[in-house]
Each structure stands twice: as structure tokens, then as C-alpha cells.
């Protein structure tokens, strides 16, 4: 690994100053992605600002029933927390279905949001990748793209965002709080990650010197009736081919509340707003679920190696909604 | 080079380490504790699993400097009935993954004791999840065994978990 300067700031103000002062400085959380990328030479920060000692480790209930999660809460602590397990079970399940217990014990919430893609060509320094080297081309399009995007991809990039946690956060209308030397701002998770377009190297709305300090979940009664379902090439410890976060509330046979988001299908966690609109007020039946999935996936486009994911996503949406309807949420 | 104070298996060591040195390399190359293995060196196999303040982590993705002040436990510092149980149940063939498996299992049993759920836990709100084979396999999925000794690994852990539940009776079958 290339050498770098290591600093451990005492507070958030010092941390954001340290990164603002050095153009090639980066924040370091649990290290599960950044250390790996640094070892591969893909990330090459000159200064690493270790934020894991900062006091952003709390999970607090907000007035009105929401929850505020410090950015440095470990993924495992978040998934195990009572408030999350009972009020937002899809979030606990999403986190628990990602990575391994060891990695979840290390990884932070802020770091999870900023994970880079697992596209093989992004990781292979000898391959063409517009995300790693703008203008270089995309080897994945004509290469191995089983994990690639079916929604919102571009000619420049077919990478997917690897996070499970973010899929649930997208469904739950989470808000990201970020701080820099310019102050504090709040970014809705739905608009936090970007689709690739012509600039796949720009992955989020966050500026390089902004530190994620917290994620807030609004109160959501429907979220108590929710599940996360992940389909992958092995039963555990693998990234999603397709995943679905679904919450459903039904009264007198009709859908009165729904939250739906997809993972493994796009460069961002994909909030299935069109499907939600189609479902609201519709009878809670298999037919409605299928119709909603079809509407959401109408613009989906597959490549030879991942076109199967369109049908897989359709079926997984229906199966997850059916499971919430018949068995209730995962709590 | 900056001095890094690492506390490993109850002893504090002052090491001259560049910040890019991983906890795994610090243990193996600087402290001679080669029980912790380097498999993939990218967080995909679990061979490097150690305990930090009792919590299992992958030492390959940990910068040593980040773990200053933490209590690191490696296989050299472990005395657990799991070790005898792995022998008794053929929980390994080549043994390369075994130290990671045992450190991971110690961390896993502690997590279970703290009521941490898993991806296969049926009801997340309920406590006291039983450590079935499915639960053990899911909770141990971060440790790969290329010899495929998984059945023995599950049996060894299940025996010790059962013994734990019955007031920590050591694994007599292993003697």
C-alpha cells in the first residue's frame, strides 16, 4: 500500500478542517472498503483522517417516533438495536444480509453509504473503467456484467451500488446529515447517490470535504410491517443480484401504505416510486403486485449477461410483497 | 516511524509502524504471531479473524494504528473449549482457516449472548434465538473453509454453544 499521512482528529470540527486543508485527504471509517481500495491502488489518499474516534456513535429516538443514527455507529450495532428491529425491521434485515459479521462489526453507517461499486473492472487497474479513469471506456459492457445495472445505466457505466443498508434507507425516506467547514446540510437519501450519465466517477452529492455525521429516519408506522429479501449467487456473504425492501399496510383488502426499493439493479438504491403509486389504493393481490412491478421495470434494459435480472426483480418484488402480506413484517 | 502501542493477548507492545501496515501484518510480521492467517487479504475469507475488545474483526482490513488502545486477542491468546471441540468433530483438514474460525466462533457466541440477530432469524423483535444449524451457518458465513469441513465446524460450535448454555461444561468428548 502507498504510504500516507494518518491523523486522528479530536472532534468533528477538526476532522472537516483536516480534510478541507488537503486536496487528497480522505475520511476513514471502519476501513472495510477504503483500506481494500487503497491496497489495490484504486484509492490513493495522501492523508487519511480517521474519524472512528469521533462522538458520532449514538442511536437516539427523535420526538415523534423517528430515529437519529450517528454516522459512526457500526453496522452490527444498528442492526441489533431494539428500535430498528421493531420499527424498521427491513433495515435490520438489510444490514444483516450484507457482508459478514466481522465486516459488519467494523463498517460504519457513513462508510456504508459511501461504498464504491464492486464491478470487477473498477477493481482491475488494467481494465477500462470510466468510473476509475474518466474517458477510458467501460469494459463491463462487453465483459462480465452479471452484477451490472438494469435501471438508470448509461453508455459510460453499468456499475451497481453494492449496499444493502442503503436500499432500506431509500425505502424509509432517510435523510443524510453532512458537515463541512461551510456548515451542516441535510440531503434526502433518495437524492444522495447519482446515476452515472456521462460522469460515473461522481457518485454522490457529497463534496469531497463533507463528513457524514448522521442519518435520520422519519417516523413510519408502515415500516413496522416490512421485510428485506436478497437474491444472490450463494446463500450468504455475497452481493445482491437483486434485492427488495418492502413495507406494506393493508386495510379492508386495499393497500393503504407501501414503501418499496430495489438493490443490485442500479448505481443507486432504487426507490420504486412508480410501483408505490400503482399500489396505493389498489387491492392487495398478487395481480396488483405483478402490475406494479411491471410498471417499475418497464424502462429496465439488460445486457446479455444480466438481462435475467429484469425478470428476477419482477418476481422478487412480487414475492416480497406477498410475504409481507401473508406473514407480516420481519419483526 | 511513529510508535504505535498495540495491546495483544494481554501484553502491550510498542511498535514502529507506518500507518499503512495492517493489523494482520503487524501481528504476523512485527510480533511473530503467525497463528492469524493471511488468506485473501481483502476481507473475503475470514482467515485473519481476531477479536478486538472481544468483537470479531478482519485484521487484513484493519490498519494497526486504528486499533491502538484496543485489546486484541489472537489464537495464541485463546483457551477455549472450541479448540478441543474442533479436534473432536474434525472441524478442519488443512487447518489454514482454523484460527480464524475459532476466533470468529468465540465472537459469534458472544454476539448471540448479547441477543444479536442474524439474517436467518425469523422474528427480529423476539429475543433468545436458538442456535440452530442454520443460525450457526449464517453467523459463521464470514469464514470460508476450502477443505469443506463445514459440517464438523457446525458440530463443534453447536456442542460448545450447548455446553455454554448448560453452564460452560468443557467439551469432554474431545479429551
UniProtKB/TrEMBL annotation, chain A:
Q: Name one GO molecular function term.
A: FAD binding
Q: Which UniProt keywords apply?
A: Oxidoreductase
Q: Any idea where the FAD-binding PCMH-type domain is?
A: 1-222
Record's keyword annotation contains Oxidoreductase: yes
Q: Which InterPro entries match?
A: CO_DH_flav_C, CO_DH_flav_C_dom_sf, Diverse_Substr_Oxidored, FAD-bd_PCMH, FAD-bd_PCMH-like_sf, FAD-bd_PCMH_sub1, FAD-bd_PCMH_sub2, Mopterin_DH_FAD-bd
Query: Matching Pfam families, A to Z?
Result: CO_deh_flav_C, FAD_binding_5
What the entry lists under Gene3D superfamilies is as follows: 3.30.465.10, CO dehydrogenase flavoprotein, C-terminal domain, Uridine Diphospho-n-acetylenolpyruvylglucosamine Reductase, domain 2
**Protein's UniProt name:** Xanthine dehydrogenase family protein subunit M
From TrEMBL, chain B:
User: To which species is this protein native?
Assistant: Nonomuraea turkmeniaca
The taxonomic lineage of its organism, from the top, reads: Bacteria, Bacillati, Actinomycetota, Actinomycetes, Streptosporangiales
- GO molecular function per UniProt: 2 iron, 2 sulfur cluster binding; metal ion binding; oxidoreductase activity, acting on the aldehyde or oxo group of donors
Could you list this entry's UniProt keywords, alphabetically sorted.
2Fe-2S, Iron, Iron-sulfur, Metal-binding, Oxidoreductase
What's the protein called, per UniProt?
2Fe-2S iron-sulfur cluster binding domain-containing protein
| Family annotation (InterPro entries) | 2Fe-2S-bd (IPR002888), 2Fe-2S-bd_dom_sf (IPR036884), 2Fe-2S_ferredoxin-like_sf (IPR036010), 2Fe-2S_ferredoxin-type (IPR001041), 2Fe2S_fd_BS (IPR006058), Aldehyde_Oxdr_Iron-Sulfur (IPR052914), Beta-grasp_dom_sf (IPR012675)
One protein family per Pfam: Fer2
Tell me where in this chain the 2Fe-2S ferredoxin-type domain is found. Answer: 2-78
Q: Which PROSITE patterns match?
A: 2FE2S_FER_1, 2FE2S_FER_2
Q: In which pathway does it act?
A: Alkaloid degradation; nicotine degradation
